[in-house]
């Protein structure tokens, strides 16, 4: 069964490191107009479409009012069969997690919440441009627990310039006190088009040294593994049984539909991308047109290479026989010389049954993937 991603492009304030499509929500009326358009797009899905997983991301979905959230999920139930999904995730930020909002999510069938804490260090939060404090983040997570969320994921960002290693250790300790079922840990990246990227280009901000990034990643990875979390994807850790089913669907190459401005889909061998502009998205759907900006039918060999790269994001790597059955290709015939060279450089671990990234390759995975794609 496919997955369904819903993009809510609104947030309270654009973070300087964020390269996802989002805009500050100034007026609730634009959110109502967006939900109208989203409802029209959902009705374009095939009548038989039924998702195994639903993921509502952004932006900040919880920037919407509680009644707007209820309306959103009513539409998902009516037009996409979301009530039958096994996993329904909604992203939330601590500054927008009032009890009424959490109750609206639970009443609407959300059974997994992903909280964008990023840090429990106020200096790091200020540097990252977050609107919440460390104490607000702590209280928001506790509020989600008391409201009834039994499956909570927490996002963390490490290697923030000017923030000490000790602060990261304290953040990890506080996260472990909350004992979330899932933790995503990312090293800060400076993506083109973001304020942080522009500041770095002007010399106004600098990334942490590579060796320091490695030390911080290794520390977090080791700490989480010692405390019962399974490292199952480059940036993701879970209590066994609480891995993100929706994200595993991506990494396993399954089909998914994406609705909303800037959302992407992969259905029946075709990749589609929606327009990355709110007004254009609204206008197209209000005029009865599809919001697709571009589409591309993926050739079998290109798709096989994509699946190889996506599968290598998982710590368990790619099993040779499963890959052959799924794609019709043997990865040795597809890119044998590249695999051999990467193994020689200690970036791939190779045996008869599977290939996987080495520990050394986890932080330079994009370099490995570029050679395989």
UniProtKB/TrEMBL annotation:
<dbReference type="InterPro" id="IPR006638">
    <property type="entry name" value="Elp3/MiaA/NifB-like_rSAM"/>
</dbReference>
<dbReference type="InterPro" id="IPR004559">
    <property type="entry name" value="HemW-like"/>
</dbReference>
<keyword id="KW-0004">4Fe-4S</keyword>
<dbReference type="GO" id="GO:0006779">
    <property type="term" value="P:porphyrin-containing compound biosynthetic process"/>
</dbReference>
<dbReference type="InterPro" id="IPR007197">
    <property type="entry name" value="rSAM"/>
</dbReference>
<dbReference type="GO" id="GO:0005737">
    <property type="term" value="C:cytoplasm"/>
</dbReference>
<keyword id="KW-0349">Heme</keyword>
<keyword id="KW-0479">Metal-binding</keyword>
<dbReference type="Pfam" id="PF04055">
    <property type="entry name" value="Radical_SAM"/>
</dbReference>
<dbReference type="GO" id="GO:0046872">
    <property type="term" value="F:metal ion binding"/>
</dbReference>
<feature type="domain" description="Radical SAM core">
    <location>
        <begin position="1"/>
        <end position="230"/>
    </location>
</feature>
<keyword id="KW-0411">Iron-sulfur</keyword>
<dbReference type="GO" id="GO:0004109">
    <property type="term" value="F:coproporphyrinogen oxidase activity"/>
</dbReference>
<comment type="similarity">
    <text>Belongs to the anaerobic coproporphyrinogen-III oxidase family. HemW subfamily.</text>
</comment>
<dbReference type="InterPro" id="IPR058240">
    <property type="entry name" value="rSAM_sf"/>
</dbReference>
<keyword id="KW-0408">Iron</keyword>
<dbReference type="GO" id="GO:0051539">
    <property type="term" value="F:4 iron, 4 sulfur cluster binding"/>
</dbReference>
<keyword id="KW-0963">Cytoplasm</keyword>
<protein>
    <recommendedName>
        <fullName>Heme chaperone HemW</fullName>
    </recommendedName>
</protein>
<dbReference type="InterPro" id="IPR010723">
    <property type="entry name" value="HemN_C"/>
</dbReference>
<keyword id="KW-0143">Chaperone</keyword>
<dbReference type="InterPro" id="IPR023404">
    <property type="entry name" value="rSAM_horseshoe"/>
</dbReference>
<keyword id="KW-0949">S-adenosyl-L-methionine</keyword>
<dbReference type="Pfam" id="PF06969">
    <property type="entry name" value="HemN_C"/>
</dbReference>
<comment type="function">
    <text>Probably acts as a heme chaperone, transferring heme to an unknown acceptor. Binds one molecule of heme per monomer, possibly covalently. Binds 1 [4Fe-4S] cluster. The cluster is coordinated with 3 cysteines and an exchangeable S-adenosyl-L-methionine.</text>
</comment>
<dbReference type="InterPro" id="IPR034505">
    <property type="entry name" value="Coproporphyrinogen-III_oxidase"/>
</dbReference>
């Amino acid at each position: 069964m496919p997955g369904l991603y819903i993009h809510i492009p609104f947030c309270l304030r654009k973070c300087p490191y964020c390269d996802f499509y989002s805009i500050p929500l100034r007026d609730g009326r634009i959110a109502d107009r967006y939900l109208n358009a989203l409802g029209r797009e959902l009705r374009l899905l095939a009548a038989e479409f039924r998702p195994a997983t639903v993921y509502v991301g952004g932006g900040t979905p919880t920037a919407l009012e509680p009644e707007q959230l209820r309306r959103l999920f009513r539409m998902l139930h009516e037009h996409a069969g979301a009530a039958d999904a096994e996993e329904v995730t909604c992203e939330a930020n601590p500054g927008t997690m009032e009890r009424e909002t959490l109750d609206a999510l639970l009443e609407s069938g959300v059974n997994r919440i992903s909280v964008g804490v990023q840090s429990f260090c106020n200096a790091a939060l200020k540097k990252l441009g977050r609107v919440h404090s460390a104490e607000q983040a702590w209280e928001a997570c506790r509020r989600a627990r008391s409201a009834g969320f039994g499956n909570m994921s927490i996002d963390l960002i490490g290697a923030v310039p000017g923030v000490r290693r000790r602060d990261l250790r304290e953040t990890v300790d506080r996260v472990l006190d909350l004992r979330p079922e899932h933790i995503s840990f990312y090293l800060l990246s400076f993506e083109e088009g973001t304020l942080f990227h522009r500041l770095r280009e002007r010399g106004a901000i600098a990334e942490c040294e590579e060796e320091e990034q490695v030390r911080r990643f290794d520390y977090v990875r080791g700490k989480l593994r010692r405390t019962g979390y399974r490292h199952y994807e480059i940036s993701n850790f879970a209590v066994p049984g609480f891995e993100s089913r929706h994200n595993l669907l991506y990494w396993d190459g399954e089909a998914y539909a994406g609705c909303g401005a800037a959302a992407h889909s992969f259905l029946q061998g075709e990749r589609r991308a929606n327009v990355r502009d709110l007004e254009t998205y609204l206008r197209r759907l209000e005029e009865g047109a599809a919001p697709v900006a571009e589409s591309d039918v993926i050739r079998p060999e290109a798709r096989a290479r994509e699946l190889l790269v996506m599968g290598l994001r998982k710590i368990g790597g790619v099993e040779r026989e499963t890959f052959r059955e799924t794609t019709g290709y043997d990865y040795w015939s597809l890119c044998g010389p590249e695999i051999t060279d990467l193994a020689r450089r200690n970036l791939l671990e190779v045996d008869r049954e599977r290939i996987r990234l080495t520990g050394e390759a986890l932080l330079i995975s994009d370099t490995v993937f570029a050679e395989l794609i």
